[in-house]
Design goal:
The chain has 125 residues and is α+β, with helices and mostly antiparallel strands. It is built from 2 helices and 4 strands. It has one domain: 6-pyruvoyl tetrahydropterin synthase/QueD (Tetrahydropterin Synthase, Chain A, 2-Layer Sandwich), CATH 3.30.479.10. The longest helix is centred in the middle third of the chain and has 15 residues. It is elongated and about 50 Å long. The two termini are 15 Å apart. Keywords: Lyase, Metal-binding, Zinc. It comes from Saliphagus infecundisoli. One of its GO terms (molecular function) is lyase activity. Its cofactor is Zn(2+).
């Protein structure tokens, strides 16, 4: 199985919406690092699994969407708790809509929060 990984870092804000979230229930900032790992059993005619430029451009656009923003204000988080795990799933869904190389059969998204915690989502595409 081949894998190609790209990553980006940015700062965004959120607050948790679970019962009794403590200090996490007040808007606060995190430094997020988002890592995309594309996987597949074969390479394309140019010996690539995924076009890295396309993957980086997609990830950069997503970082720009959330950079210095309150995640809770975005429609994709409406009615949900904007946890690091939920954030990974939101990014997974956005990336699979935009990066469609035929050789990619799986995508893993890891979101690191302040080098302390991380959440991930992985599935076939």
């Amino acid at each position: 199985m081949y894998e190609t990984t790209v990553s980006v870092a940015f700062v965004a804000q959120h607050y948790l919406t679970v019962p009794d979230p403590g200090p996490e229930g007040v808007p606060h900032s995190h430094r997020y690092e988002v890592e995309l790992t594309f996987s597949g059993p074969e390479l394309n005619e140019y010996d690539y699994l995924v076009d890295i430029d396309d993957a980086e451009a997609t990830l950069s656009a997503l970082a720009d969407r959330y950079r210095d923003e309150l995640l809770n204000d975005h429609p994709e988080f409406e009615g949900t708790n904007p946890s690091v795990e939920r954030f990974a799933r939101v990014i997974f869904e956005a990336v699979t809509e935009r990066v469609g190389d035929e050789t990619v059969t799986g995508l893993g998204v890891t979101v690191r929060e302040d080098d302390v915690a991380s959440g991930a989502y992985e599935a076939s595409v």
